[in-house]
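Quick one, tokens below:
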């Protein structure tokens, strides 16, 4: 996947953002069960509605719209707000010299089959969402899929969720690590630890390739991750201690 500049921003928040997505899904499932979603970009809201009549409405800012041709950033789209929260991505792009974040639209690859486009848009929506979390400090994000396959990516700006705990991370390895769309898993782990205030240390393993390993701790519990020489996770250990 291309978009190296976009990935450079998104990777740092990708693991943290995924844990927040997981927490959001748990809350919605627990409170609503089966539900449908209605996004209103004009009024910057999103409503999750269950068949029984229960609903949750939250403020939601349009970050980007993805179709099979391009990403259109929310700050450049008629349904978005030019100086709204999505403009933080434009500032990040300006500060770091990333054209993918400062251009109003970013073309997507051509010559993809229908199945490839579908998967590509899902992965790209997650990259966009993670970049938004990193640029704004706001999470979670939510992707709405329209009938024509277009994705709309929103930040839920007032949905209250507890921060991920060390147990949340440790007990969901390796599933969450294998689910994130990143160029470098090491960056994602380091970004999560930094955001949550956990201590992380790195060293080279004793194998021939001197592959990287890291140790994370919240001051009580510990986790160890081994990576291969391309930065992909290959082994996990954790010691959870109740606080």
């Amino acid at each position: 996947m291309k978009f190296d500049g976009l990935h450079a921003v998104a990777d740092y928040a990708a693991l943290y953002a995924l844990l927040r997505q997981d927490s959001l899904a748990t809350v919605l499932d627990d409170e609503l069960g089966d539900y449908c979603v209605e996004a209103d970009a004009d009024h910057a809201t999103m409503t999750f509605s269950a068949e029984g009549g229960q609903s949750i409405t939250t403020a939601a800012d349009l970050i980007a719209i993805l179709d099979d041709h391009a990403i259109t950033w929310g700050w450049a789209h008629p349904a978005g707000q030019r100086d709204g929260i999505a403009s933080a991505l434009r500032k990040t792009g300006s500060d770091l010299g990333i054209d993918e974040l400062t251009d109003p639209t970013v073309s997507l690859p051509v010559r993809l089959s229908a199945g490839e486009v579908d998967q590509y848009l899902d992965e790209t929506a997650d990259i966009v969402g993670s970049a938004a979390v990193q640029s704004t400090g706001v999470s979670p994000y939510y992707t709405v899929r329209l009938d024509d396959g277009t994705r709309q990516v929103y930040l839920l700006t007032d949905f209250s969720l507890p921060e991920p705990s060390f147990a949340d991370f440790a007990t969901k390895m390796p599933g969450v690590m294998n689910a994130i769309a990143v160029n470098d898993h090491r960056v994602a782990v380091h970004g999560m630890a930094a955001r949550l205030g956990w201590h992380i240390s790195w060293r080279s393993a004793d194998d021939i390739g001197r592959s990287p390993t890291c140790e994370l701790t919240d001051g009580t519990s510990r986790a160890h991750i081994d990576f291969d020489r391309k930065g992909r996770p290959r082994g996990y250990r954790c010691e959870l201690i109740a606080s």
